[in-house]
Amino acid sequence: MTESLYRLVYFSRNTVPGDPEAVRAEIETILERSRRNNAAARVTGALMFNDGCFAQVLEGPHDAIQATFERIQCDERHADVKVLAFDRRSTRGFAHWSMAYVGTATNADRFADIATASAFDPSVLDGDAIYDTLKANMADSALALSHPPGAVRARGG
Predict the structure, then answer these.
(1) Section 57-82 average pLDDT
(2) What per-residue confidence (pLDDT) applies to 53?
(3) Measured in whole angstroms, how far is the alpha carbon of residue 132 from the centre of its chain?
(4) Pairing of strands 100-102, 44-49
């Protein structure tokens, strides 16, 4: 029997304290831990971050997605967590990444259209728009960080 595949897209407000360097270091810690945990749980996905917000796509078995999202909801670095989409899927959009990453101030323009359209108001964000933006950015190998850490950067998604 094949296990069903699900995709969850969420938004949250960033509550990571500190100066930009401390925040960057904390995001690196989040990515390292997420990549390790997600690989073990057969979860793939992508994280989009700017100073004020997280948006993330998680893909995998239902129970693994639920457990991962429960940890996120309990994580003090996230506030105002809102599910934008949760549904069954036939394929993974981020099959090659345990946790791809799009973020930092230098890349903020990559998802400025979402910020402009929604002012990052979770009540008007769209899960498909977040997914599409993350997926489009995975084509840029300078932003696509693959698992395992230290591996050659992936080109595509």
Answers:
(1) 95
(2) 86
(3) 12
(4) parallel
Q: What is the mean pLDDT of residues 45-65?
A: 91
Q: What pTM does this model have? A: 0.78
**pLDDT over threshold 70, residue 78:** yes
Angle at CA 51, nearest 5°, toward 151 and 122?
Answer: 105
Q: Give which of 96, 82, 89, 71 is closest to 126, Cα–Cα.
A: 82
The string of pLDDT tens digits covering residues 128-148 is 888 887 887 776 544 444 443
DSSP secondary structure, the chain, as one string: -PPPEEEEEEEEEE---S-HHHHHHHHHHHHHHHHHHHHHHT-EEEEEE-SSEEEEEEEEEHHHHHHHHHHHHH-TTEEEEEEEEEEEESS-SSTT-SSEEE-SGGGGGGGHHHHHHHTT-TTT--HHHHHHHHHHHTTSTTT-PPSSTTSPPP---
Bridge partners (DSSP) listed for residue 48: 55, 102
